[in-house]
C-alpha cells in the first residue's frame, strides 16, 4: 500500500531527468538512476510544471516503494517555508523556502525545491506565469501571483525533508479553528471547522482528496462542524478538507493532521526512548528525539527566545518584509507543521497577541507572578531577584529559565568501542544540586546515576548502540534543567595485513608498519611489537612507538635471528588502543665482518701469475662458523682508468694467499682484499705505513655541503731504504719478475714535482670555482634568477616549461636530486593586463585576462619589482615550484600558467574577486562602516557564524591537502588566504613554502613573528605542526573579524611570554569549543597539536551542528578586536 502523499510536479530547472524523487512522512530521498541499488518504481502519471502553471517544464514522476526508502538523517533539517499570501493584493504575495543548512546544492546537498500538489485541489491556470528565483544559495522565492485562486492549495518545500503549507481562502464557507493539528499515535484528533457563511446542505469531509465522512448541516454545534478521529495511526495523517456539498473546492476549509509515530513523550524506532521536555510549544520529533522549536524560539529544549523579527534554528534568519514578522506564516518540518510567527495570531497572522498571551500563534499564556510583565514575543520578563517561566522563584536566575543550569558540557563527545569513559556533568542553581539529583540518559533510555557530588558518571563498556543523543538531567526543589549532547562511537583500528619488511641488517630491521586497517581513524600512534621466534618461551614483547607516517627501525637485535613482529594501532581517546594485527616473521642478517685484512706482499710468480699474501690481526681466527671473522675473502684488482678489472673469491676463511692469473702487461693496478660474510663485505685492506721504494697514486676532493669532484691523479714514489717492501698499488710489466727501482735522486725530484703539481692544480681549481660563482651570481641578479628555467620542446596542445629549483633545504631524509617540473606556459600576447590589485615592497599583483585553451579567463598575475632582492627571487621561484607540485585543489589558489618576458617572470593564478580574507573580514565590521544598519539589525558583522566557520573549514581542508603532500606553508595567515567566487577560502602565497617534513631556516629574512610557533621562533625549525600553530592564530583572526594577534605587544614581549605559557585571550563572541580548538593548536609540544585532518573533521562537525559558535549579535559594550598595522609588519 502506498501513502496518499504522492509527489506532484516539481518546479526546479536543475532536477535531472534521470532522477527519482520520493516522499515519506519523515524525510525526502533523492536517488540517482545510476545508483547501484535497484529500486522498484511506479509511475503516478502526473505531469505539468508546478500544478500545471504556465512557463514551467514538464516532468514524469515515479513513486519509490516505501520499504526501499533510505533512512532519515540523524538530525532535523533546518528548513522553513515562509508564506505571505495577501488576498487583497496577490501581487505582493510570495512563498519562500529558506534553508539554514550549510553548503549549496552540488556541495553534497540536494537542491532546494518548491512544489504544489494539485491532486487535492486544482485551481485555474495563472494568467501570468509565476516567477521562481533564488534569493542567494539558501533561499528560493516564488512570486508573480495575479489572482486569489493562484494562492489556493497545498505547497511544499523540499530539501532532504519536506515542509508542507496548506492555504485557506478567507472567503471560504468553512474555516478551520486551527490549521495544523499534531497528535500522537493512539490519540483522538478533533478537527473543528468554523461556519463563516452558512448553507443548508450537507458537509463533506475529505482525506487527501478522497471522500471520508459526511455530516448533516443541522449537526453544527456552536457554529462549528466537528470531526473526531479516534485511535489515530501514522497513515491517518494528511490533508483534510471540509466543504458544503456542491461548492467549489477552492472554498473549502483545509486542515493538516500530523500523527507522530510514538506515544506522547516517546521517540525512536520502537518508541522506547524518552523525549526531552520541549518548551514554548516545541514538538519532540519521533524519529530523532530532538525538539522542533516554534518560529522565534531556539535551544535544545526551545528555552530561548529570538529577538523580534528573527527565526531559524539559531535565530539566524531575518523576516523578509513587515517588522516583527507580521502577516507571515511559518511552516517547519513535521511533526511541528505551520503557525504564525511569535507574537502574532489570526487567519492571516495579522493580529498581535491579546494581553497575557505570547508565542507562535499566541497559544501560550504568561500568568506572570511577583511583578513580572508579559512580552508577547518571549513570555514573562521577570524583575530583579526573580526567575522562572512565570517569575515564581526567587534568587539568581539562569539561562534555562529554571533555578538550575547545566554548565561545562560539550555539545559532542566521542567514545571508543568497549571503552569505559568518564562523563562529567556540572550544574549550578539555588538550591545547589546534591547527591542523587543528577542523572545521565543513554539513547536507549537507560539511566546512569551517580552517588558523587562531582557529577562524574562512569560509563560501562561502550557498544555501537550507544551512538546518538545523550542527555544530562538535574532536578532539585528549585527546578530542573537538561542538556543534550551527541555521542559518536568509534571502533579502534586494527591492521588487516602484517607489517612489511623493507630492509634488513645484522642488528636492524626496517619495517613499514601501516597499510590498510579496519575500524575508525585518525591513527594517533603506531606501536610495533616484536620478540625472538626461538626464545625459551613465549617471553615478553618488546615494543617501539613510531610516527604513523614513517617507517620504523627495530634496532639492537641479534644477528641471524628470527623475530615475530606485530602492529597495534591506536586512535585518540580513552580505549582507543586496537587489537594486535597479524604477525610477520622477519630474520636479521648475519653480522658484517669487522676484521680488516693486512696486505703483506705480492710478487710475480711467472709471466702470467700474480701471487698475493695477506694476514689477519692477532686473535682473529678463521675456523668458520657463525662467529668466525668471515666466510672467505674477496680480492679485487682495479684498473684506475677502466674501473674494476678482476674479482677473485677465496671461499676458505683459513686462506692467506691467492694467485691471480693473466694480468694485463704494462698496466698499473690497485689491489684490495676484504672479508665477506653472508654477502656483506668488510673493510678493505690498507697499509698503516708507506712502504719504501713504492710508487703511490694520490687524488683529492673538497667537501662542503657534499663531496666535490675528484682531482686529477698524481703519482709519487717513496724513497728507497734498501728494503724490499710491499704496496697496494703495483705495476705489471711483461717479461719481468718485479718492478724496477728508480734512482734515489730521480725519485726525489719526481716527488717534489708531483707535490708542486698537485698543489697548483688544487689552487687553480679553487680560483676557477670562485670566479665561476661570482659570474653566476651576477647573471642571476641580472636575469632575475631565470637561469633555473629551460624550455625544451614538447609535443601536445600546450607548451610546457621545465625548471629545477635552487632552494636549499635541510631534511631528515636524504635529499633526492631535483627533477625538472612541468607547468603550462602562457604566451605574452595572451595576457591582457587590466588594473593593479595589490602591491608590496618587492612585488605586485595585477588583474588580467588570459587566453587558456581558447577561453578568456580572469586571472591574477604576480610579478616582482625591478629592485627585488635575491631572496625575493628565490621565494618567488619557490612559489612557482610549490604550485606545480601541489596540483589543483578547491581550497588552494591554483596555477593557471607562467610567462617569461624580457627577463621577468610572471605567474598567473586564479582570480579571487573578494580579495584576501583579512581585508574581507575587516570590511564586514558593519558597526564601523554602517552603524545605523548594525543597530537596526542587531549584528556586528555582515557575515554569519556559519560563514565564518566555513572560512576556517576551507582553510583546514586546504592545509590538510598541503600536509598530506608534505608541504610546509610557513606563512599561514588571513592575509595569505583569498576569498573566491562563492566565498570559498583559498590558501595563497606559497613563497615561503617548503616541500619537506622538517625545514631549518639558515638565512636572515622577514618573518611573520605573530603567527609563528614557539619552536620556529626559538630554533627556526618549521614542520606541519608549526602550520597548525599558525592556523590557530588564523582562526582567532576569523573570530575577531580581522583583529591583530597580540595587539599591543611587541615582538620582544612575544619571545619572552610565549614560552612562559601566555596565549591570546578568548574573544567575547567566541564559543568555548572554538577557543579550545585554538588552544590545542597553541600547545607547546608540536606532537601534542592536532593534525589538520582532525581539525578539518572537528570544524565539519561544528558546521553540521548548526550552532552559533561565533556570536555576531550586538551584545552590551561590544567592541571589535584591535588592529595595529605597524605591529603586523614588524
TrEMBL record:
Catalytic activity: L-tyrosyl-[protein] + ATP = O-phospho-L-tyrosyl-[protein] + ADP + H(+)
Cystine pairs: 293-302, 382-391
EC number(s) per entry: 2.7.10.1
Keywords of this entry: Angiogenesis, ATP-binding, Cell membrane, Disulfide bond, EGF-like domain, Glycoprotein, Immunoglobulin domain, Kinase, Membrane, Nucleotide-binding, Phosphoprotein, Receptor, Repeat, Signal, Transferase, Transmembrane, Transmembrane helix, Tyrosine-protein kinase
SUPFAM superfamilies registered for this protein in UniProt: Fibronectin type III, Growth factor receptor domain, Immunoglobulin, Protein kinase-like (PK-like)
Membrane association type: Single-pass type I membrane protein
Compartment(s): Cell membrane
Domain Fibronectin type-III, first and last residues per copy: 495-593
Class of the enzyme per the UniProt entry, highest EC level: transferase
Transmembrane domains' residue ranges: 751-776
A molecular function (GO) term: transmembrane receptor protein tyrosine kinase activity
A GO biological-process term: angiogenesis
Gene3D superfamilies: Immunoglobulins, Phosphorylase Kinase, domain 1, Tie2 ligand-binding domain superfamily, Transferase(Phosphotransferase) domain 1
Residues in EGF-like domain copies: 272-303, 358-392
Binding site for ATP: 862
Domain Protein kinase: 831-1110
Keyword ATP-binding: yes
GO cellular component entries: plasma membrane
SMART domains the UniProt entry points to: EGF, FN3, IG, TyrKc
Taxonomic superkingdom: Eukaryota
Xref: InterPro entries: EGF, FN3_dom, FN3_sf, Growth_fac_rcpt_cys_sf, Ig-like_dom_sf, Ig-like_fold, Ig_sub, Immunoglobulin_dom
Family, as annotated: Belongs to the protein kinase superfamily. CAMK Ser/Thr protein kinase family.
Job of this protein: Transmembrane tyrosine-protein kinase that may modulate TEK/TIE2 activity and contribute to the regulation of angiogenesis.
Entries under PANTHER family matching the protein: TYROSINE-PROTEIN KINASE RECEPTOR, TYROSINE-PROTEIN KINASE RECEPTOR TIE-1
Name of the protein in its database record: Tyrosine-protein kinase receptor Tie-1
Species of the source: Ornithorhynchus anatinus (Duckbill platypus)
